[in-house]
Amino acid sequence: MDDTRFTRAKDIELREIVGEHFLIVLHVGESKMFSLNDMGLWFWQQLERPVTKAELLEAMLEEYEVDDETARAEIDRFLAHLVERGLASRI
What we know:
alpha+beta, three-stranded antiparallel β-sheet, 3 helices
């Protein structure tokens, strides 16, 4: 894992609506909403400050009963998903 840091994109708000969590894109001219499951919410909370994949891995292994390989794959998959949709960025 490298030292690249990931953080939340600007103008994205987390909202809870009827017990479910959604990311709302607040860019002018855009209206997008993404629902988050529990793992998605965990990732969003971790991205409150810039973090590396290694920091995410350490946090995930502490919090969840998951093996190293599975955790690494999930981190790679979800970060790529967030970056591709403009919800997070590499810094």
